[in-house]
Amino acid sequence: MNHKGILVVVSGFSGSGKGTLMNRLMEKYDNYALSVSATTRSPRAGECDGREYFFKTQEEFKEMIQEDAFIEYARYVDNYYGTPKKYVQEQLDSGRDVILEIEMQGALKVKEKMPETLLIFVTPPSVQELKRRLQGRGTESGEIIDARMAQAKEEVKFMEFYDHVLVNETNQEESCVDEMHQVIQCAHTKTSQNREFIEHIREQLKEV
């Protein structure tokens, strides 16, 4: 059977808990790798090149764009951020499932370039719960919370393009982590992920 890894893109509303879920997934199961993005911003205290980010100069990043070295990239304020194709492919070839957390438009760009990508959307069980979680952080002003809720109105338009929607129920984080793991592992049995194996069986049957 095919032992190549699967690229998984996880998106969701701000406050859905997707970051916490992915961190727990990495702790609980050992076959996952988080995709490391490249960026032109300066390293912050404690950050290490190749761990948090691949730190690049503006010139280096633009060269990578010209070389089609990114699965997707975007510019925020004065800095570029992108997903290096080479790093992801190396992890997939080694058999690891690569988790990439990006916003919806970026996720669709990845799916366009790599059609076998698995798209997972994480959401709380209700809009009321989403707002409660944002307020519960205690770190954001009312204006920022309103802006995040307005952003969610735009983001919901992309949900139907995802392969799976995971509802992160309140106080059920562990169950959601296990469900995410099961969804990813089930994707390994798709026929599109096992074309080489199918061809191998086909060739063997010709010899019978």
Automatic annotation (TrEMBL):
<dbReference type="InterPro" id="IPR020590">
    <property type="entry name" value="Guanylate_kinase_CS"/>
</dbReference>
<protein>
    <recommendedName>
        <fullName>Guanylate kinase</fullName>
        <ecNumber>2.7.4.8</ecNumber>
    </recommendedName>
</protein>
<keyword id="KW-0418">Kinase</keyword>
<comment type="function">
    <text>Essential for recycling GMP and indirectly, cGMP.</text>
</comment>
<dbReference type="GO" id="GO:0004385">
    <property type="term" value="F:GMP kinase activity"/>
</dbReference>
<keyword id="KW-0963">Cytoplasm</keyword>
<dbReference type="InterPro" id="IPR008144">
    <property type="entry name" value="Guanylate_kin-like_dom"/>
</dbReference>
<dbReference type="InterPro" id="IPR027417">
    <property type="entry name" value="P-loop_NTPase"/>
</dbReference>
<feature type="domain" description="Guanylate kinase-like">
    <location>
        <begin position="5"/>
        <end position="185"/>
    </location>
</feature>
<feature type="binding site">
    <location>
        <begin position="12"/>
        <end position="19"/>
    </location>
    <ligand>
        <name>ATP</name>
    </ligand>
</feature>
<dbReference type="InterPro" id="IPR008145">
    <property type="entry name" value="GK/Ca_channel_bsu"/>
</dbReference>
<dbReference type="InterPro" id="IPR017665">
    <property type="entry name" value="Guanylate_kinase"/>
</dbReference>
<dbReference type="Pfam" id="PF00625">
    <property type="entry name" value="Guanylate_kin"/>
</dbReference>
<keyword id="KW-0808">Transferase</keyword>
<comment type="similarity">
    <text>Belongs to the guanylate kinase family.</text>
</comment>
<keyword id="KW-0547">Nucleotide-binding</keyword>
<keyword id="KW-0067">ATP-binding</keyword>
